[in-house]
Design brief:
The chain is an alpha/beta fold and 306 residues long. It has one domain: Alpha-Beta Barrel (TIM Barrel). 42% of the residues lie in helices and 11% in strands. It has eleven helices and eight strands. Helix 3 runs parallel beside helix 4 and helix 8 runs antiparallel to helix 11. The chain starts with 14 loop residues before the first strand and ends with a helix.
């Protein structure tokens, strides 16, 4: 198991994205997914207070609530590493000290636990001084409600400023960066995110690693897919260059007798600045596919990327 930089946290080679909980997977389906993830050796689950507020009838916190119900039912809190985030929920927006502390209390209540293993700043807040943000996070770490803090959607420059402030004030410091990165969305991670991870000595935990499902292969030219993500995929990834990349990916997947998603994640793990990729699925079949193990040669990685 990889050990996250500057921590004692040993985590699985995939972090399961809990954005599907309460969105495309109801509580029963979500429980089945979490149970199967653990059966396959997983232990790292990612959520956020904003998940899944975008679904009609939801208000945010649904993902955390489902995870909390699972923890209560199974009693397996000590078997999982739980990450969640603050800043993007409309009713708990931003990274002021007050908001961070209150949002954490909300998340702890929904998760039915006394601590969060990794608490993320979900997006940078340019309206709040970094000193105030980090003071809020530090208060949570000192109190034991949060073990480690991390950043999501931060640039190299802003992350560097935050780390300097933490050091100068003896505050808790960000231990990881979670930015978008996949075969079909390689920038700005390759020029900015990877630089952050390597120069600052923190862990890289990229999200949206499967291009919202595009890299699974279910999206093909002139085809229609019944999926909650279909419109976004069509707008962002459905172009000639990406379909050619998909054909190369499928060729390598066939060679190894594994899924496209397993190969896409294996490619990510070979990239500079990547410690553990995040990925999610709404069915057991999708989860099984992305959890398949495969090792790629440098030549295969280069071939896939084109």
């Amino acid at each position: 198991m990889p050990t996250l930089s500057k921590t004692e946290l040993q985590v699985s080679e995939i972090c399961f994205g809990g954005n599907v909980f309460g969105w495309t997977a109801d509580q029963e389906q979500s429980f089945a997914l979490i149970n199967r993830f653990l059966e396959l050796g997983g232990n790292f689950i990612d959520s956020a207070d904003v998940y899944s507020s975008w679904k009609e009838g939801n208000q945010g916190g649904e993902s955390e609530t489902i995870i909390g119900q699972w923890l209560k039912q199974t009693g397996k809190r000590d078997q999982v590493v739980i990450a969640t985030k603050v800043a993007m929920l409309e009713t708990r927006k931003g990274l002021s000290k007050k908001n961070i502390v209150l949002a954490c209390e909300d998340s702890l209540r929904r998760l039915q636990t006394d601590h969060i293993d990794i608490y993320y700043a979900h997006s940078d807040d340019l309206e709040t001084p970094l000193e105030e943000t980090l003071e809020g996070f530090n208060e949570l770490v000192v109190s034991g409600k949060v073990r480690y803090i991390a950043a999501s959607n931060y640039t190299f420059e802003r992350l560097g400023q935050a780390l300097k402030i933490s050091k100068s004030h003896s505050f808790a410091s960000y231990i990881a960066l979670q930015n978008r990165y996949s075969l079909v969305a390689r920038e700005p991670y390759e020029s900015d995110g990877a630089k952050s991870v390597q120069e600052y000595g923190i862990s890289g935990l990229p999200y949206s690693t499967l291009g919202s499902g595009f890299l699974s292969g279910k999206y093909q030219p002139n085809s229609t897919v019944a999926s909650a993500r279909a419109e976004g995929v069509s707008n962002n990834y459905a172009n000639e260059a990406n379909f050619e990349l998909l054909r190369r990916l499928e060729e390598i997947a066939t060679r190894h007798s594994v899924s496209n998603t397993a190969v896409a994640l294996a490619w990510l793990r070979e990239q500079p600045g990547v410690t553990v990729p995040l990925a999610s699925g709404r069915t057991i079949e999708q989860l099984d596919a992305l959890m398949q193990k495969v090792s790629l040669t440098s030549e295969e990685c280069s071939f896939i990327a084109g």
